[in-house]
């Protein structure tokens, strides 16, 4: 029996970031299929188009939402706002949103590898 990858193409134009990320998380877990099992990584590949045309963020959200990263050295806590990160790398913003909506287990990285973002 051969594995068949199912592809889903999502047009992000006019959608909000959070609703788009939750929809992607459902497809990456294969919850849309009747043979869903929480212990299987799934096989659906999700392709995102027109990411730069999503619904704009509220001004308060884009300035107050801050992403943190620690380098591992004392006092090296890096932070960047949503507004700055969106200008720098919109793909990373979407992938971080999807990552937060997937279950926190060993399958999360395998599922994220099946997310393809095209600009």
Describe this structure in words.
The chain is α/β, with parallel strands linked by helices and 119 residues long. The chain has a domain at 6-56 and 90-117: Ribosomal Protein L13p, Chain: A (Alpha-Beta Complex). The chain has helices at 17-28, 59-64, 82-88, 90-101, 108-112; strands at 6-11, 44-49, 66-70, 77-81, 115-117. The strands form two sheets. It has a three-stranded parallel sheet, covered by helices on one side. Strands 3-4 form a two-stranded antiparallel ribbon. Helix 1 packs across helix 4 (90-101) and helix 3 (82-88) crosses helix 4 (90-101). It is globular, with a radius of gyration of 16 Å.
Quickly give the structural class. alpha/beta
Question: What are the segments in which pLDDT stays under 50 over at least 5 consecutive residues?
Answer: none
Widest sheet: strand ordering: 1-2-5
Radius of gyration: 16 Å
Overall shape: globular
The CATH architecture category of the domain at 6-56 and 90-117 equals Alpha-Beta Complex
Percent of residues in β-strands = 15-25%
Number of helices: 5
Quick structural gist:
The chain is built from five helices and five strands.
List the helices and strands and how they pair.
Layout: E1 6-11, H1 17-28, E2 44-49, H2 59-64, E3 66-70, E4 77-81, H3 82-88, H4 90-101, H5 108-112, E5 115-117
Parallel strand pairs: 1-2, 2-5
Antiparallel strand pairs: 3-4
Helix pairs in contact: 1-4, 3-4
